[in-house]
Amino acid sequence: MGTRRRRKTKKQNRMIYGFLILAMCSAVLILGMFLLFQTREVKIVGLRHVDEDKVREWITSSPLSVNSLYIWLRYDERTEDLPRGVAHVTVQFTSLWDLEIQITEEEMIGYIFYDNIRVYFDENGIASLMTHEEIENVLEIQGLMIGAGGIQLGERIPVEWPQRMTEVREALLLANEMELTPDLLSLEGENIILHFGEIRTNIGNRNLRDRMSQIPPILERLDIHHPGRSGVVQLERFNNSGNLIHFEEDEPDPGGV
After folding, report:
1. Residue 60 and residue 91 in contact, taking contact as beta carbons nearer than 8 Å
2. What percent of the chain clears pLDDT 90, i.e. is strictly above it?
3. What pLDDT shows up at residue 27?
4. Where exactly are the structural domains of the chain?
5. Topology annotation, domain 110-249
């Protein structure tokens, strides 16, 4: 009876010793990783319009960010809970202590002037950037009526008629998809007008894909047969079942030569 108790006690002691050794090894391993992967330099690349200081503060806000492995585990391939204007984050080691943070910014599809400053918005209509700077290949929108509450960064642009913003976003995304390069998008009543130099195209507010697909060949024909003229291509009544497109040339300026 006593022999069995001693054997059981020895077995329990061995299990306890094994557990303690495992815990000590784990602690040494964790400590070693903490000491080995101490953050020395964080290089942030890919920024064009987002403030680098805000991104750096976001990355290093945790006390554990002194560890480069922690930064990599937490932020690599991250697509959610990001700073405003950032769409994706990739983290790469350049050494055990140094990191390169690759930032992919959200794509701005349009902007409006609000209180004499450009307000850029993304494909969801969210105001992502306010700046005096003009971003290349991002279209200005004229004619959107802003609600009384004003514009707040990180929130949808509060237009008086939300359906208008939906139509504008559709037109902008289609223009990018079709590689159209208008100079301006304006709103006149219920119609969307795309400006191409002296030629305006009235595409209405529905069936936008069908109507916008007619723009490249129309502009080409006008350039060949009516070079230098200005006017409006009326596409707002076009549909695939009939040809209801016509060109209304602007009246000559009475004061011109």
Report:
1. no
2. 49
3. 54
4. 41-105, 110-249
5. Rossmann fold (3.40.50)
